[in-house]
Specification:
Strand content: 5-15%
Shape: globular
Distance between the termini: 16 Å
Strand order of the largest sheet: 2-1-3-4-5
Helix content: 25-40%
CATH topology: Rossmann fold
Order of helices and strands: EHHEHEHHEHEHH
Radius of gyration: 15 Å
CATH class: Alpha Beta
CATH architecture: 3-Layer(aba) Sandwich
Number of domains: 1
CATH superfamily: SGNH hydrolase
Largest sheet: 5 strands, parallel
């Protein structure tokens, strides 16, 4: 089975000295699967301006074709940590606006669904030690996670949700000073994901 991991800093293993301890590598090994890692350090889901024009080639919304071309049996999407870090606008379910996290994330998922079956796509909320930690705009991680939950429910997709399903799983030592997962954080996330995928 080819598992495509699509995401940003956590998926890319930002801050790690040893790439072999990435959660993506551990999950693939645990499930005896092929790992295709499409993580890009610093990538945000958001890649459009208010007018819908693409402004970032490394954004999630710009890289959907790469995921489709990877011939995945399963796609695991973990996006949002860098949108939160950069204090990107989370978006509003009642007000469509391009260039916000919710609506560009929604477009990413719709793009994947154009080429894949719904049961091939799994969404993952952003892991954190403290989900009430705020960014420069005083927005907590939990706000971005709620947008991911909304999207999963909207398209009836499997959701792996550390914030709700595994409260207390992570400690502060599982993240470095840049809020990237450390080796221990990657291991905890990997075991949680592998267990949930097997259910």
């Amino acid at each position: 089975m080819n598992i495509v991991f699509f995401g940003a800093s956590h998926t890319a293993g930002a801050g790690l000295d040893d790439g072999a301890v990435k959660f993506t590598t551990i999950v693939a090994s645990t499930l005896t699967s092929i790992e295709t890692n499409l993580g890009v350090d610093g990538s945000q889901a958001v890649g459009r301006d208010d007018n819908g024009m693409l402004i970032s080639d490394t954004s999630g919304i710009a890289r959907v074709p790469d995921v489709i071309d990877a011939d995945a049996d399963k796609i695991l999407v973990l996006y949002g940590e860098d949108d939160w870090k950069s204090a990107g606008e989370p978006g509003n379910v009642d007000l469509f606006r391009q260039g916000t996290f919710l609506w560009d994330y929604d477009t990413i998922i719709r793009g994947l669904l154009d080429a894949q079956e719904a049961d091939q796509i799994v969404l993952i909320t952003i892991p954190a030690a403290v989900y009430t930690t705020v960014n420069a705009k005083d927005l907590p991680i939990s706000v971005y996670n709620q947008q991911i939950r909304h999207t999963a429910a909207k398209y009836s997709l499997k959701l792996i949700d550390p914030e709700i399903e595994a409260a207390g799983l992570f400690s502060k030592s599982d993240f470095d000073s840049d809020r990237n997962l450390t080796a221990s954080g990657h291991n905890k996330l990997a075991q949680f994901i592998a267990t949930r995928l097997a259910q």
